Amino acid sequence: MSALRVLIVDDDDLMRAGLCAVLSSDTTIEVVAEAADGHAAVQAAARVLPDVILMDVRMPVLDGIAATRQIVAAWPRARVLILTTFEDDDYVYGALAAGASGFLLKRTRPEHLIAAIHTIAGGEALLSPAVTRTVIDRMIEQPARDPRTMRRLSALTPRERDVLELVARGLSNPEIAQTLVVSESTVKTHMKRILDKLDLRDRVQAVILAYEAGVTRPGSAKPVRE
Predict the structure, then answer these.
(1) What is the CATH number of the domain that holds 168?
(2) Domain count, the chain
(3) Which domain holds residue 208?
């Protein structure tokens, strides 16, 4: 099995070096390129076609959100994991809407970062309850639900709508399985069908669409765990 190819994007030389050191502890991960700004990241992604891109938000020349948008537009299969600090919470919705597959704080533990890379590379989205809460807050601010988005949901079965609502509340697949009293494999099957029917990339886009369509109500999200 070939190693996961990772592109590290951060304007801080020390941060890039630290990330490289952390990832070197996992023999199944290979850092194939680095970039110090968003423009360089777009060029590097096109050149090396990484499995996962670790993307900072605040950078010169081109910020991480704009870079993510360009990369995903050119390469829809790109998997971008946003790395940021608490001060960047205002950027979460923009990054996810731009096509990022996950969001992680820079102060996360090394083993959690490595696990996140494997999660993203495996086609899953990394969406913590805290990030779900941020998405919800932004969707609450939207003036009206898009009727076109609501019509897209008519393709779902009642059980698929149940799964989508629980995803939007921030529940993981095991938690959804427990709530609906089904197997985790059944939940994964429902999730795949939801993404296929709604033409969505991943779980992140499913959460955004769920709130645009009013599938779940503000205040119904799962409480954030400390």
Answers:
(1) 1.10.10.10
(2) 2
(3) 144-212
pTM: 0.72
Domain of 115, CATH number, reads 3.40.50.2300
Look at residue 31 and tell me if it is in a domain: yes
35 in the same domain as 117: yes
Note the pLDDT tens digit of each residue in 42-86: 999 999 999 999 999 889 899 999 999 999 989 888 899 998 875
Neighbours of 59 (CB within 10 A): 23
